[in-house]
Amino acid sequence: MRVRFITPRTAGLFAVFAAAVSCATALPAVAQDTIKIGEMNSYKSQPAFLEPYKRGWQMAVEDINAAGGVLGKKLEVISRDDGANPGDAVRAADELVTGEGVNLLCGTFLSNVGLAVTEFAGKKKVFFLGAEALTDKMVWQNGNRYTFRLRASTYMQVAMLMPSALAANKKRWALVYPNFEFGQASAAAFKQMIKAKQPDVEFVTEQATPLGKIDAGAVAQAIDDAKPDAIFSAEFGADLAQFIREGSTRGVFKDRSVVALLAGEPEYLDPLKDDAPVGWIATGYPASATVPPQNPEFVAAYQKRYNEVPKLGAVVGYLTIKSMAAGITKAGSTDTEKVVDAFQGLQLTGPFGPFQFRAIDHQSTLGGYVGKIALQDGHGVMVDYKYIDGASVQPSDDEVKKLRPAD
User: Fold this and answer.
1) What would the DSSP string read from start to end of 29-40?
2) Cα(269)–Cα(236) distance, rounded to whole angstroms?
3) I need a surface site. Which of 62, 139, 189, 318 has the fewest CB within 10 A?
4) What is the pLDDT of residues 284-332, one digit of tens each?
5) In the structure, what pLDDT confidence band is assigned to residue 280 with cuts at 50, 70 and 90?
6) Does pLDDT of 209 surpass 70?
7) b/e string for 154-176 if b means 16 or more Cβ within 10 A?
8) What is the torsional sign of CA 337, 93, 138, 332?
9) Are 41 and 114 in contact (CB under 8 A)?
10) CA distance 116 to 404
């Protein structure tokens, strides 16, 4: 397996060194035998999700190379930390393209970072597969010919939760979400969808919290003071944990329905241990799921390799590189335009079963799980869950055409 990790501190020195040795006679032969993919993500900022994600894509690289590579060549991933910052991400992308000669990029976690690389890809005409960044703008309002996205989008995941929100039949809702692109888009989608089906609904408070800096006690108290019947949450990571603990201590969730994006992901459930919010309805990933049937096979292979149960990040990382390899194979080339054409309608199968990348908006139909959070052996788990095919929660082609600019 060929994998290189380059930190922001050493990136500049490495670029100079790479340029200095680029004329070495051995390198052209190496280049001929290798397909390079540039990858960037917020590894230092979001380790809970991205450490499993890294192991997932490393596993994919190893599996692909052990099976003969792609187009008869070894796959090499050159990975960089994007600093969880749009500007740093664009600089990392530019260094990969100009310093490494990479024309195929993938990765990103935060939505604002994903949007920045989306713009870069469109301007520079470089292929980009967004892995985890969830904002709908990546494939709709800000979408372009060169950008695709793997993970189920904000719109799709809110739509997955909507049947549970409507079934609760609550009138007064409180919303809490991180105050950046993902959180804002999540809240907007939730309000739009539930209002369309339940016109008399009221939004009694919106708590837009600074990412990574939530004042959980004040937020929990503000929600309780608003006396909602139900709560919608899009918090994640350490902010989610703090909000859950403060809200539980103050009785904010008692006798109130809660629907939550991402809260069922083991990356965020596991650290809570017995503080897991029992009864919440959430999107997430139960690794024990036997549906789709491909999931147990992936779980067993991952456990054998890493001696741990995979988290959702591992699935996303694995499918990111598998998708890249499938697109290159279909294109029969690493030429940017050919890979872009190949990804439109690209079909493949992974731990979540078959899915494809829609030609109309470049969004994949990869689905997700919705279930109830419960406690088992002192740990939070998802129960009563079901897998929802991503194609079933995507808007119609006519709706997408209204949102997405022409390529």
Assistant:
1) HHHHTEEEEEEE
2) 10
3) 62
4) 999 999 999 999 999 999 999 999 999 999 999 999 999 999 999 999 9
5) very high
6) yes
7) bbbbbbbbbebbeebebeebbbb
8) positive
9) no
10) 17
Structure tokens at 95: 């260094």
**Taking a C-beta distance cutoff of 8 angstroms, is the pair 174, 204 a contact?**
yes
Return the bridge partners of 6, or none: 80
pLDDT value of residue 406 = 81
H helices present in 250-293, as ranges = 266-269
Q: Could you please report the per-residue DSSP string of 167-230?
A: HHT-SEEEEEEESSHHHHHHHHHHHHHHHHH-TT-EEEEEEEEPTT---HHHHHHHHHHH--SE
Q: pLDDT tens, 223-257?
A: 999 999 999 999 999 999 999 999 999 999 999 99
Between CA 378 and CA 374 the distance in angstroms is 10
Parallel, antiparallel, or unpaired for β 368-376 and 379-388?
A: antiparallel
Structure tokens of 192? 């739009």
So what's the pLDDT on residue 407?
79
Neighbours of 139 (CB within 10 A): 26
Query: Residue 54's CB: how many other CB atoms inside 10 A?
Result: 21
Picking from 369, 195, 357, the residue whose alpha carbon sits closest to that of residue 289 is 369
Euclidean distance between CA atoms 344 and 80, whole angstroms: 27
pLDDT tens-digit series, residues 79-130: 999 999 999 999 999 999 999 999 999 999 999 999 999 999 999 999 999 9
- Rounded Cα distance, 142 and 405, in Å: 8
Rounded to whole angstroms, the Cα distance separating 356 from 160 reads: 18
3-state secondary structure of 353: strand
Backbone torsion region of residue 77, taken as left when φ is above 0, otherwise alpha when ψ lies between -120 and 50, otherwise beta = beta
Report the amino acid identity of residue 185: A
